[in-house]
Design goal:
Helix content is 48%, strand content 19%. By secondary structure, the protein is α/β, with parallel strands linked by helices. Helix 5 (132-138) packs parallel to helix 9, helix 10 crosses helix 13 (313-328) and helix 11 packs across helix 14. The structure holds nicotinamide-adenine-dinucleotide and zinc ion (ZN). The site of zinc ion has 5 residues, from helix 11.
Length: 363
């Protein structure tokens, strides 16, 4: 087992990464929970596979838990689901000393984070991520969010977990598509901040897609360590460092919204977003064509999409501009200057954006 510490003073917490950790959940969680309630928030696929094992392990350490199921996928991140969960907690008499454990992917993790941040002004949160994407990205760093129909992650909070338990053996049941989606975030880290990780992905692609133990553990560990380091230095995205992790996401979120959260998943949208944004870096004279080709073949090599159909360039630009008005006042992109090294670019010229989009939008 590997332990990575997210260093945030009194809000520091460990990320445990290893095979078979679900069986140890009780032992790991017990020191953190008071005598009060533990509520497991999960989605049907994850609950079916791992719910019994988690509950048994908690019970073995004398922890009683209740399980609340929410709809799968982005449907977990709606205001309607949030309201139902909070009402459920109230009915279950969950109090300020209660603990919420998320069991599943990034969607239920984001919901659980927002519930934990807001229920009674904040209760303890523990993540047990069971997707590759959640283990390498969403379970670390305390960002929690819900979507509105027109804007992704627009309602949110920062609320750090007290513990993250990443059981890498739980990834073995992932459908291949979800493995690819996790790979998209891994490629993001490699492209924007770590050439070594990028090379690992290039070299170990087939082993990763098969979820070979060593290759997977190494990739999860490298990414989690990168994210933990970034979060420790820029928890609230103030210095720009954490913003780097948005590579592929400015355009990726627009793709998600344009497709109404159907069609492409988050990871797939980010893959398209990276293919478009690396072209933006090229249009701005930051990287050469070879860099675009190298990254794009890595993305495609993982079976991820690099083009979007049925959405116009105009629609994507409008969504990004809307986000800009509401969220940051500037249209910001995290772009590689070279593979493994990124920078933030604000309000690039519209013709460069258009040029970049031509490469990825079939309209
Ligand atoms: N908070 C953050 O910092 C952050 C970072 C990155 C992404 N995100 C968010 O994460 C979400 C995407 O997360 P995701 O890709 O994990 O999607 P997801 O949560 O929808 O999970 C994907 C699918 O896999 C199923 N599943 C989960 N574990 C499984 C297992 N072990 N075996 C089989 N099936 C399993 C899920 O039920 C779901 O059907 C997006 O909403 C995105 O915005 C948040
Ligand atoms: Zn993402």
């Amino acid at each position: 087992m590997h332990t990575i510490r997210v260093d945030l003073g009194e809000r520091s917490y460990p990320i445990l990464i290893g095979n078979g950790l679900i069986a140890e959940a009780g032992r790991r969680v017990a020191p953190l929970v008071s005598d009060d309630r533990v509520v497991i928030l999960s989605v049907p696929p994850a609950e079916r596979l791992y719910g019994d094992a988690v509950r048994a392990s908690l019970a073995g350490s004398g922890i009683k838990s209740e399980t609340v199921l929410v709809p799968d996928g982005e449907e977990a991140k709606t205001i309607a689901t949030y309201t139902r969960v909070v009402e459920g907690l109230l009915n279950a008499k969950a109090g300020r000393g209660s603990t919420i454990i998320s069991l599943g992917g990034g969607c239920v993790g984001d919901l659980a984070g927002f519930v934990a941040a807001t229920y009674m002004r904040g209760v303890r949160l523990i993540h047990m991520p069971t997707t590759l994407l959640a283990q390498v990205d969403s379970s670390i760093g305390g960002k929690a969010a819900l979507n509105l129909p027109d804007a992704k992650n627009i309602v949110g909070a920062f609320h750090q977990p007290a513990l993250v338990i990443s059981d890498t053996s739980s990834l073995r049941t992932l459908p291949p598509r979800e493995v690819r989606c996790g790979a998209a975030e891994l490629i993001k880290y490699g492209a924007i901040m770590d050439l070594r990780l990028l090379e690992h992905l290039e070299r170990e692609r087939d082993r990763l897609l098969r979820l070979d133990d060593d290759a997977t553990m190494r990739a999860v560990f490298m990414a989690a360590e990168l994210k933990a380091g970034v979060v420790a230095k820029d928890e609230r995205e103030l210095s720009g460092l954490r913003l780097l992790l948005n590579f592929g996401h400015t355009l990726g979120h627009a793709v998600e919204v344009a497709m109404e959260y159907r069609g492409f998943s988050h990871g797939e949208s980010v893959a398209i977003g990276m293919a478009g944004e690396i072209r933006l870096a090229e249009a701005l004279g930051m990287v050469a064509r070879e860099t675009v080709d190298r990254l794009e073949s890595l993305i495609a090599g993982f079976g991820l999409p690099t083009r979007v159909e049925g959405v116009s360039r105009k629609a994507l630009i409008e969504i990004m501009a809307h986000d800009k008005k509401v969220v940051a006042r500037k249209l910001r992109f995290a772009l590689p200057e070279a593979l493994g090294k990124g920078t933030i670019v604000s309000d690039p010229p519209m013709d460069a954006i258009n040029e970049a989009l031509k490469g990825v939008v079939k309209d």
